[in-house]
Specification:
The protein is an alpha/beta fold. It has 8 helices and 12 strands. Strands 2-1-3-4-5 form a 5-stranded parallel sheet, sandwiched between helices. β11 and β12 form a beta hairpin. α1 crosses α5, α4 crosses α8 and α6 crosses α8. The radius of gyration is 17 Å and the shape is globular. It starts with a strand and ends with a strand.
Amino acid sequence: MALIYIVEDDGDIAEIEQIALRNAGCDVKIFKDGKSFFKQLLEKVPELAIIDRGLPDINGCEIVKKIRNIPDYKKLPIIMVTAMSSEMDLAKGLDDGADDYISKPFSVMELISRVKALLRRTKPQTEKRIQMDGLCMDNDKREVRADGTLLPLTFKEYELLQYLLLNKGIVLSRDSIMETIWGIEYEGESRTLDMHIKTLRQKLLSYGERICTVRNVGYVIK
């Protein structure tokens, strides 16, 4: 039973999320502000956190950035919930360290699907080390280095790169990537994939150029 923390000041939304996730077999705790959330982290770190962007005491993005700067918590998978839907707002959430996002309003099934997909990605990997020239992925340490330089990848960026590297030279369809990494149907979710590809290319330094777009199909790493 996965332990999930929900940071949400809207009681109705928090209750809906809690009921849905409990019905899906998760153990859920709700926090109305960042202060109580961080206090509980000192007691126990969950398998996943769902954090609303608009909180009364601190912006959700600030919570995510703070988590990523604390060694004991920095690998905690995080889903950001936001009422904002512009590409700039969503990109900021990902840049700050969120692994995925859900825009309000969202369906219960979408929430469960996103949570299950992210939890699946946290399981230990069978491939301990994947290398392509000077680009090296170490799954034991969960690190990626480019010519020796440690790359600051988010959880989803790491999983996306791993999927590309395991299928080096193979064109992966957008549908396949979305289903494998996010566990949901691709329709209507193009921004999620495109933004992650964009940030991943930037973070991979010179190796970012090896992620090629195959028009009307998907992506391939060469």
